[in-house]
Design a protein that fits this description.
The protein is α/β, with parallel strands linked by helices. It contains 15 helices and six strands. Helix 2 packs antiparallel against helix 5 and helix 6 runs parallel beside helix 8. The chain starts with a helix and ends with a helix.
């Protein structure tokens, strides 16, 4: 080997060089983020301004029948010949709807800074302001991807939160950090890939949850971290095993979950009440809030809920779970049943007062 060949030999980078490489990589990543942010900001702002001008023009010609519809057709043809693809009538309709949904400049710049056009397009199609407000805030704060946002809208994430709460009237109240504001009914676990009619084994469901833990944590909501599976708690005379244990850093408390593949029973409620009491005594730290217990069951009878500790407890909850994605009609019926039960419960409390 010649001296020239030796000089050409590649040597492993030093620790100092590795740090240097990392610094350069970080600079490039930050630069790309800034470029992406600037492009997204300009694009979203542009679409909003196009929508604003469309609405202003429509108002000028509102006395003419079908003026708005023909206006978009003509505009689409003009923009297509001038700028190329991307300005179909459907897209122009979306720009128009974007402006009509959020006409406030302050909200616009929040949208521009933190959400993509794909996020905005999904949220603006929601029927109610409460739902739009909730998904807008959660997508920003929780950093939901478009795929997660779409899944949560499709499974009525917001409405399922409302269906388990007794006195919620706004999206802002749902966002308050309280135990009942994090409980859904039902939970939708379609990501586990298990057939709903065939699964009667709690261990299979439990194992599937562990295998899809990230998706399960997203379905559970904000602030959850996994602690353990088949978590053992022991008294002087007995050992008990809790299916799943989590800690919620927002609520500052443990959350214990018991899986039931059958209909909810009084025995299930009593067992969870015992688990929560034992966990509070043996595992709860000085700075922790009281433990929360959630019974995830295949079905439940609201009569049992009404006449058990669940009706007044702020620590124990029972929710159904769905292993397959329900149809819109099935989910709507489920939410209406829950709403009817909560309404009757409120009326009963008012009559007692």
């Amino acid at each position: 080997m010649t001296m020239s060949d030796k000089n050409k030999q590649i040597t492993a980078p030093s620790v100092s060089e590795l740090h240097f490489f990392d610094d350069i990589s970080q600079i490039l990543l930050e630069g790309r983020k800034k470029v992406h942010f600037a492009v997204n900001f300009a694009m979203v702002e542009t679409y909003w301004n196009i929508g604003r001008r469309i609405v202003e023009q429509e108002q000028q010609g509102k006395e003419r029948a079908n003026y708005g519809e023909q206006l978009l057709v003509n505009l689409s043809r003009h923009l297509g010949s001038t700028f190329g693809r991307g300005f179909s009538v459907a897209n122009l309709w979306n720009f128009r709807q974007f402006y009509l949904t959020w006409q406030n400049d302050e909200i616009l710049y929040t949208l521009c800074r933190e959400l993509s056009w794909s996020h905005i397009r999904l949220i603006m199609r929601l029927d109610t302001e409460k739902a739009r407000e909730y998904y807008l805030n959660e997508a920003r704060v929780q950093g939901w991807s478009v795929r997660i946002l779409e899944r949560n809208i499709r499974t009525s994430y917001f409405e399922r939160l409302l269906s388990s709460q007794k006195s919620i009237s706004s999206a802002k109240q749902v966002d308050e950090i309280a135990a009942e504001n994090l409980i859904k009914d039902p939970y939708v676990l379609e990501f586990l890939g298990l057939p709903e009619n065939d699964v009667k084994n709690e261990n299979r469901i439990e194992s599937a949850i562990i295998s899809h833990l990230q998706s399960f944590l997203l379905e559970m909501g904000k602030g959850f971290s996994f602690v353990g599976r088949q978590f053992r708690i022991s008294t002087e005379t007995s050992h008990f095993y809790i299916d799943l244990v989590f800690y919620n850093y927002l609520l500052k408390c443990f959350v214990v979950i018991d899986l039931k593949t059958q209909k909810l029973t009084h025995q299930d409620i009593g067992q969870m009440d015992m688990y929560v009491r034992i966990f509070d005594e043996l595992k709860r730290g000085e700075d922790d809030n009281p433990t929360i217990g959630i019974i995830l069951c295949a079905d439940k009878d609201n009569t049992i809920v009404k006449y058990s500790v669940l009706s007044e407890s702020s620590q124990i909850f029972a929710s159904k779970y769905k292993l397959v994605l329900p149809t819109e009609e099935e989910l709507t019926a489920e939410l209406e049943r829950n709403a009817r039960y909560l309404r009757e419960a409120r009326e009963g409390e008012e009559n007692e007062d």
